Amino acid sequence: MADESKKTKKTVGKKKVGKEGTDKDKTVSPKKTICNATQQMIEKAAREGISTSFDRVESMKPCPIGAEGSCCKNCGMGPCRVPAPKKKVEGKEDTKKRQGICGATAETISARNFIRMIAGGAASHSDHGRGVAETFLAAAKGEAPGYGVKDEQKLLQIAMDFGIEIEGKSTKTIAIEVGEKALAEFGRQEGELCFLKRAPLKRQEIWRKLGVAPRGIDREVVEIMHRTHMGVDQDYENLLLQGARAALADGWGGSMLGTELQDIMFGTPVPLLSKVNLGILKEDEVNIIIHGHEPLLSEMIVVAARDPEMVELAKSKGAKGINLGGICCTANEILMRHGVPLAGNFLQQEAAIITGVVDAMVVDVQCIMQSVQDVANCYHTKIITTTPKAKIPGATHMEFDEHDAMTGAKAIVKAAIENYPRRTKNIDIPSHKMDLVAGFSHETINYLLGGMFRASYRPLNDNIINGRIRGVAGVVGCNNARVTHDEGHVAMVKELIKNDVIVLQTGCSAMACAKAGLLLPEAASKYAGAGLAEVCETVGIPPVLHMGSCVDNSRILVAATAMVKDGGLGDDISDLPVAGAAPEWMSEKAISIGQYFVSSGVFTVFGATWPTTGSDVLTKHLFEEMEEMYGGKWAFEPDPIEAAKLMIAHIDSKRKALGIDKARERVLFDMEMRRDLESA
Ligand code: BF8
Ligand code: SF4
């Protein structure tokens, strides 16, 4: 790897090198990425003078007051800055009262900022879910040709969860009723969201007792914006309760609806083999990158790209065919259901264009850097925006209408094909790519572990109880340009599986680990502890299970609930030996996800940065007091190995509370004995 420190100065995470007193002023940047394909493109960009997020992070120092959550700009008297007190001022404790002009304290300001992040995240997931519900209803009514019901069993299941009478009704009628009921959850004004009843009873009681059971999805987001307006809620604990309510409306509402309705329309994922990394791009084919989050369009592009008429058109332009690849969560959606390869995760979006072979990058919503257009300007790549909610200056806007989906999808594919002959000679496709197995929905895990005739979580629970599997971890979330790309995900997940913790993954985190070869069955013997490896080899699954996109974190909630219901591991999610993490988070959606995991009883540790360090009072509430309320709490640990250790310690404490800690010691003892016998 080239020494990037010669080109740029890193502003965060500088490391001193050399012996003390010799060259201690010399600093090197930590690596930008552990992904060789991305590194190759960073170097190509540097040669060609193209700016990427990896460069901009060097010069864009984070505002220290904003980074710690101590800046309020919620009214025109501000922005007011209330930075954390310096330890000592002229030898004395800094006791100066920290207040905004209106009197808002540091904890109030920090809590408002924190829950506004939740509002942003919950709104994003849920507006995606609403779009799915609208299309679902239109399809059920026969107004959106191209979409239909692929998983009838799930349709019936959801109808029953909604309390819809299904006896004697046609699939069409049931689908219409499910669509109407789902859509109504967004604008619901009172009562409770339907899916809350899927949670363990004890969990539901906790939510009701604390007053955080969400009434309606939109309502909870709007109430955050109201309460954080100047001069409304000034009590950090009360503000965080509303944060929890909106986050739960995301996890058990908008996101869960999005996942379930997508499964009904496009099929519930089953395990399949695919590939990941920029090496999936092809020099002699039309490359279309689908980037963003909503599968409504990408599902249709998958169909359009396979249309013989489109393939012929591509051939007439000199290409051998049409190659699709995904970036960000759209990638995960079409990987899970169609095996379409992953081009890369969040921090690879610019790198993909730098290869010079992306003929069109089709984007919808969320996590799309505005700079993709700047990078595309240096090549022939066409950036195509597709939704009225997200436009980019300079990009081509081809609005997608779900009511006439195939026409729109074909027009987009055609635009990509027509752009193929405009490629320049400036091409360099990294060779790096890796196989992976994906498609682990809650239903598949149930089936794989329990078998076709007794699908259940029993074998998982039994293996946790007998100690072969120590516990379960959800490792999810983004890349963050402020930390080495992919490093946190891979290091954390390796540490967890080494210690017999099975890992469930979604989002960009799953892609990072896929690139490192962890999403393959053979990763079990290579990286997992003896107990976990034995279980994985018996069942034939990888030790790291890819469960989908970020809205699919709701699958993890459903899986955790199924574990509780199967028995033997307590009567609430907070009793389970499980933990969650987002080692490289950056998005507001990650904060919403983290909060709905915490409020569902899960210990959740974040890396990279923590947005409330300016208020010790608020941070203590999140990191300690929330445990008494929810049985789950937040933690911050930027070192991924240390963070994994915190998760393992938490898992062990839950095993102890369940009285199953001794069983694991026996298993380890047995394995030791077996090894001794084998080597004797
Ligand atoms: O919803 S993990 S960077 S792509 S926010 Fe974005 Fe984060 Fe990736 Fe998916 Ni999720
Ligand atoms: Fe300052 Fe209060 Fe206005 Fe915030 S709401 S900017 S703290 S005056």
Summary of the model, kept short:
By secondary structure, the protein is an alpha/beta fold.
Report the oligomer. Answer: single chain
General form = globular
Major sheet description: 6 strands, parallel
Residue ranges: pLDDT <50 for 5 or more in a row? 1-28
The tally of helices reads 26
Structural class: alpha/beta
Q: Give the rounded overall mean pLDDT.
A: 93
Number of strands: 20
Task: Round the Cα radius of gyration to an integer and report it.
Answer: 25 Å
> Which band does the percent of strand residues land in?
5-15%
Q: Share of helix among residues?
A: 40-55%
Distance between the termini: 45 Å
* Arrangement of strands in the largest sheet: 10-9-8-11-12-13
Task: List cofactors, ions and other ligands.
Answer: FE(4)-NI(1)-S(5) CLUSTER with Oxygen, iron/sulfur cluster
